[in-house]
Predict the structure of Nicotianamine synthase.
Amino acid sequence: MGQPEELFVDMVCLTDPLVQKICSLYEKISKLENLNPSNDVDTLFTQLVHTCIPPHPIDVTKLCTQIQEIRSKLISLCGQAEGLLEKHHSTILGTFQNPLDHLNLFPYYPNYLKLGALEYDLLRPHYPTAPRRLAFVGSGPLPLTSIVLATHHLRSTVFHNYDVDASANAMAAKLVEPHPDLSGRMFFHTRDIMDVPGEDLREYDVVFLAALVGMEIEEKMQVIEHLAKNMSPGVILMVRSAHGARAFLYPVVEPRHLRGFEVLSVYHPTDEVINSVVVARKVVHSSIDHIHQGFGGPLMHCSKCAEIQSFNPIGLIDELAVEEHLC
C-alpha cells in the first residue's frame, strides 16, 4: 500500500536540483585519492559548502534511503577533510614563535571569530557572569573556538579541551604554550568524553559539544545522555547543529534529542557561519532513573519544541524570538 508514496518520495528526492548537485559533488569527492589539503580537495569542498549555504526548505529527515546514505557518508568525508585541514594549518602555525599571532593564516579564521561572537551572545543572557570553568568536547588540533572565546570574550575563564586524538591535543597545546595568558588557562585532555566521570563534569559551568562529536545521531544522543547524567543542574550546554541544506555537512541535533535538558534558544545562521547553535540548561529536577530509559525517555524540557522546529524553516531564527516562543 505504501509503495506509490515511497516511489514519489524517491522521485522528488532524486530530481531535486540541490540534491542532484550535492550528489554530483559527493561522487567527485569520494573518488579523491585522499582528503589532504590540495587544489582539488579545496575546490570540491568549497563548491559543496557554497551549494549548501543558501537557505533551502529541504528537510533531510524526509530524504529517501539512498540520499540519506550519501548524506551520512558525506558528513563523514567532511569531518575527515576538516580534521586534516586543521592539522595542516596547526603544523604551520606551530612553526612560529608566537603561533596565536598568525591565526589569520587559517582561511576560515574569520568564520570562527563570527561563530565565537555569536555563541558568546547566545550564552550571555543565560549565564551573564563569566563561567569559571568551561569544557569544550571535540577541540581538535586547532582549537579556535576556545582560543577565540578565551581571548575576545571570556578573558578569565579556564578552558578544558577534550579530544580522543593525542596527536591533535599535542598540536593544540603547542599553539597556546607560548602565550603568557592562555598557557595558564587552557588545558588539553586526551579522553573520550564518555569516559569522563561525573566528579569531573560537575566542575564545569558551561559545556560545548562540537558538531562532529557523534557523527550519527545515536552516538550523539549517547554523549548527550552521558552529559545529562553527570553535569551539575543548571549548567549550560552549547550544542552545534545544522539546518536546511547545511545538514549535508554536519549532523543535526533537534531540541527533542536533548533529554535531560531545557532548551533555551535555537539559532540558525544564514551567512557563512555554517553551524546552528542550540543552547540548553541541565534541568534541576531530572531523574537519573528516567535518563536511564535511554532514547525513549521523556526528559527533554521544552514547552513548544515542535514550534521551534517549524518556525522560520528557511531562514534565521532570532534568539529572542525563539525564547519568546518557548515561554
Observations:
- Residues 4-9, 286-327 have pLDDT under 50 and may be disordered.
- The chain is about 45% helix and 15% strand.
- The radius of gyration is 20 Å.
